[in-house]
Amino acid sequence: MLNYITWNVDPEIFSIGPLSIRWYGLLFALGFIIGQRILTKIYVAEGRTEGDVDVITIYMIVGTVLGARLGHTLFYSPEYYLSNPIEILKIWEGGLASHGATIGILLALWLFSRKYKFDYMWVLDRIVIVVALGGALIRLGNLMNSEIFGHPTNLPWGFIFVRQNEYSHVPRHPTQLYESLSVFLLFVLLYWLWKKYKSALPRGLLFGIFVTALFTFRFLVEFLKENQVAKEATMALNIGQQLSIPLILIGLIILFRVWQNPKPALPGGKVQERTKA
């Protein structure tokens, strides 16, 4: 009986001429499509409209893609990309960073909230539900690409990534699956909490849980991963761990403030315009 799993999935589903449909792109897109459906249900249940979801989805897509790409270029290989700036535009060649996506989403939603007079924390509390689901699907996309895998392991669920010739001789931790499963469970928890309590949830609770749980697990699972770039070999904590620490602290601070002084969410998350006297 084999004590490992042979993984040799083609990252490309099919191609028509120069057009190629890949698992990663499909799962990335599904995160937005399914997420939009769920977010619509959440918004309508709390008195908002589908139009609000359409607008915020555009902000989310732009913030996610730009943030993830710029995060990868600036956090992992700034020397190369700053010397070859045209390469930053080649998203199809790979290179997206989840920490950069987080920053991009936070900025995009701040701009959305400011323009459309939404309570920023109300928006974050709802959006992290679908972001968690999207994150789970993206990590499955990494698995389909045979990338972001872990160190060698003797565990029976170790994967031999056949398409990674340099690493294909021994089973390795499928860290993509570890992260995908953990984030999916986080999605289930956040959605259950929202469905049970809705606007009765203290303002900031869902966002605090999401950030703390997501990046704590990310920090821990990095100990099992192969380095993403060569310079990480000399680091006590790799780049992913270093970027996770401030986000964990932000999450803990928000949870502490919620525990100290829980405040109800604004009905529908809409900030009322101040009338002039």
TrEMBL record:
Class in the EC hierarchy, top level: transferase
A biological process term (GO) from this entry: lipoprotein biosynthetic process
Signal peptide residue numbers: none
Pfam families with a match to the protein in the record: LGT
Compartments, record wording: Cell membrane
GO molecular function terms listed in the Swiss-Prot or TrEMBL record: phosphatidylglycerol-prolipoprotein diacylglyceryl transferase activity
Principal localisation: membrane
Keywords: Cell membrane, Membrane, Transferase, Transmembrane, Transmembrane helix
Protein topology in the membrane: Multi-pass membrane protein
A GO cellular component annotation in the UniProt record: plasma membrane
Transmembrane stretches, start-end: 20-39, 51-71, 91-111, 123-141, 177-194, 201-221, 241-259
Binding site for a 1,2-diacyl-sn-glycero-3-phospho-(1'-sn-glycerol): 139
InterPro entries assigned: Lgt
Pathway(s) the chain acts in: Protein modification; lipoprotein biosynthesis (diacylglyceryl transfer)
EC id: 2.5.1.145
Family listed: Belongs to the Lgt family.
Role, per record: Catalyzes the transfer of the diacylglyceryl group from phosphatidylglycerol to the sulfhydryl group of the N-terminal cysteine of a prolipoprotein, the first step in the formation of mature lipoproteins.
Name of the protein this chain belongs to: Phosphatidylglycerol--prolipoprotein diacylglyceryl transferase
Source species: Pontibacter korlensis
